[in-house]
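Running this now, will post back.
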Amino acid sequence: MISILRTKAEERFAALERTKKVALSEKQEEEKKLSENTARLKALRLAKEEADRAIAKKGKAGK
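Update: finished.
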């Protein structure tokens, strides 16, 4: 009787651990996507700032 209860408890614990692992991997995937998007937006912003500086410099040189 005790071994049956123990086996069931171990099965529940194992299922809980699998659920935790899946949830953790999903969270890590979301964090990775967020980080990649942030890096992409930063690169776009820096490229735009550089283009704006080049236009401003060109405008000053033309006057």
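The two ends are 93 Å apart (CA to CA). More later if anyone needs it.
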